[in-house]
Amino acid sequence: MLISLALNLLGVVLFLFLFWRRLKEDYSREIVFGSAFLILLGVVIGFWLSTSFFPNWIFWFEAFGAFLGFSWGVFKYSLRFFEAFEASFLGLLPWLALFFVTKVIYVSMAILVLIVLFIYLNAKYKNFAWYKSGRIGVAGLLTAGVFFVGRASLAIFNPTMVSFAGRSEIILSAISAFTIFLLVYNLAKG
Q1: What is the dihedral of CA 65, 69, 75, 76, to 10 degrees?
Q2: Distance between CA 170 and CA 168 in Å, rounded?
Q3: Among residues 107, 109, 135, 105, which one has the least CA distance to residue 122?
Q4: Under 8 Å CB-to-CB from 45, ≥6 apart: which residues?
Q5: Which of 1-10, 54-63, 109-118 has the highest mean pLDDT?
Q6: CA distance 118 to 139
Q7: Contact at 8 Å (CB) between 66 and 43?
Q8: Which are the contacts of 168, defined by CB distance < 8 A and separation ≥ 6?
Q9: DSSP for 10-51, written as a single string
Q10: CB 3.0 to 4.6 Å from 31: which of 11, 15, 27, 177, for a disulfide?
Q11: What span, in angstroms and rounded, lies between the C-alpha atoms of 91 and 94?
């Protein structure tokens, strides 16, 4: 319990740092940390709701809470959606990796691979022939899409491994991945 609490605290600090680092040049410190607080509030409310009422859906309640907090921050502080999404997803990945260290180590390793993928995509996205717009956000979206494709794929073979949502995991992860890749397509066109 104490190790899990320490890892979660470290994850929150890493989230705050990475979120701030990605957005510090475009937004004031108050805006960055205000929107980060809303995301964290969403995660905490999602955690509380899931553990109190729907313990098998903890990932999805936390993810939905984070998305609601993110959306509230985007509207409240007039953040650019794709830039803020990329910063928040990048910030949440290390926290997720630390969360799984004590539970399923190879999931943590897969998340670390996603972080490396993000770093690569972030460095090279302007050179992609199919990505003519050159706008920020594609690295975060592609990494998020791969994350959800991975969850859906893992859920096909072992539906209780990724989370405890069972077969619903396949559908929810596939819909999330499809939506994200649709956003990538629209971002590439625009």
Answers
A1: 150
A2: 5
A3: 135
A4: 65
A5: 109-118
A6: 6
A7: yes
A8: none
A9: HHHHHHHHHHHHHHTTTS-HHHHHHHHHHHHHHHHHHHHHHH
A10: 27
A11: 6
Closest listed residue to residue 85, CA positions, set 145, 141, 32, 142: 141
CA-based nearest residue to 137, from 59, 190, 68:
190
Cβ–Cβ < 8 Å for 15, 91: yes
> Which single residue is written with the structure tokens 């949502």?
165
pTM for this structure?
0.92
Q: Which structure tokens are listed for 148? A: 């959800």
Q: Which two tokens stand for residue 160?
A: 């209780």
Taken in order 101, 107, 111, 113, is the CA torsion positive or negative? Answer: positive
Report whether pLDDT(36) > 90: yes
Taking residues 17-34, report their average pLDDT: 97
Q: Which residue has the tokens 């921050």?
A: 73
Supply the DSSP symbol for 164: S
Residue 56 CB-density burial (10 A; 0-12 exposed, 13-18 middle, 19+ buried): middle
Is the pLDDT at 81 greater than 90? The verdict is: yes
Give the 3-state secondary structure percentages of the chain, helix then strand then coil, rounded to 5. Answer: 80, 0, 20
In the chain, the amino acid numbered 78 is: S
| 159 sits in which H/E element | none
